Amino acid sequence: MLDRQVEIHDDLIFIVNEEKTAPPEHLRSLEWAILTQLNGERTVGEIGEILSLDPEETVHLFQRLLKLGAIVLSQLHQMDHVVPEDVFEDLEYQFTYSLGPVAGIVLEDALATLKHSRETLKKRDFPQLIELLSLEIANRQKRHEFQRHMVDKLKRLLT
Amino acid sequence: MIRTNFKDLLEIPGIESVMLVDHHNNLIDTWAAPSSNPAIFKEVAETYLHIFTLMEHLHYQVDEICMPFDRGIVFARSHPRYNLIIIGKSSLQIPLLRIFCDVCQKDMDEHRKSKKALKKLPEKQLTRIDSRALDDVEKIMLENILEEHNRAR
To answer: What is this structure's pTM?
Structure first.
């Protein structure tokens, strides 16, 4: 669902949506050509170049394929995105609830251990941050509640 | 049991199979993606039962093992009533796997029905290795390890 709202730009990497492929009669020849070029490594820009498309046309074709559900954003590429601010706000709220008033300092320490800040932490490093924070919660029940909440968050963030 | 209690875990992309095995090496439940081969489950489970039992025998506190192989990783956890074994793609993130396992295992331990079922399972036999299940090479290896361990003491 979220994928269909993606703003197409040259650096994005898409893959064929194995779950739902648009019926062939809905696809034009250039759209088929794009599908054949998707290999999980080529970016939108590179595919546009290979097929000698102008940038506007490339964006338009990718948008249509996305709308038809024929392509999805590559999982690996999604992992390179930084963690959204609202996720951090929720994380801090839950962590403070579980650990107490020092939660903010512990969170900053954990980020420093990962050599990141709230602005630079990538999605792929988020589980490691959760793991570091969980270890700081001595109360088992509270640790479980924190992890349970973060599992729901991680599911939405990473899948 | 796996579909009910490990539903969240199964949603992680890259998970190929999950096994729950009791301490007598009986498969309690298994789940496998279409691409994986269920025929290997018993053998993999036995290997990890041996590893955990040996670790316990040597008084090492190892409850979790993660091992890469040519096509992915095996992640195994020891619990007083069962071993949990997960096979997945190499791209699987271990911290992610650990958090999901923590949550799912705790949920299972606390769930009324699962609690009853778990109680019926045999407890860990910590200081006994089932020599009937070992082949000659494993027996020799084990003797060497134990000898080395005793010498180091």
So the answer is: 0.69
- Cα B38 to Cα B24, B67, B90, B134, distances in angstroms: 19, 19, 19, 22
What is the CA angle A125-A129-A132, rounded to 5?
Answer: 140
CA distance A34 to A47: 7
Scanning the structure block, which residue is given the tokens 């919660």? A137
Is A13:A66 a contact under the CB 8 Å cutoff?
no
Residue A147: which pLDDT band, with cuts at 50, 70 and 90?
very high
User: What is the C-alpha end-to-end distance of chain A, expressed in Å?
Assistant: 11
Residue B100 tokens, joined? 């999901």
- Cross-chain Cβ contact A127/B103 below 8 Å: no
Q: Which amino acid is at B124?
A: K
* ipTM associated with this complex: 0.75
The residues pairing with B29 across neighbouring beta strands, listed in sequence order, are B20
Q: State the DSSP H helix or E strand holding residue A71, giving kind and residue range, or none if neither.
A: strand A71-73
Query: For the ranges B3-7, B87-91, B94-98, B127-131, which has the lowest average pLDDT?
Result: B127-131
Q: CA A61, CA A8: separation in Å to the nearest integer? A: 10
The alpha carbon torsion through B110, B20, B10, B67 (nearest 10 deg) reads 120
Of A61, A87, A62, nearest in space to A72 by CA: A62
**Contact (Cβ atoms closer than 8 angstroms) between residue B16 and residue B8:** no
Nearest to B96 among A76, A134, A154 (CB): A154
Q: Is the pLDDT of residue A2 over 50?
A: no
Alpha-carbon span A152 to A157, nearest angstrom = 9
Whether residues A150 and B99 touch (CB distance < 8 A) is answered with yes
Is B91 within 8 Å of A76 when comparing Cβ atoms?
yes
- CB-nearest to B13 from A75, A144, A150 is A75
Q: Which residues pair with A68 in a beta bridge?
A: none
Contact B99 A154 (CB under 8 A): yes
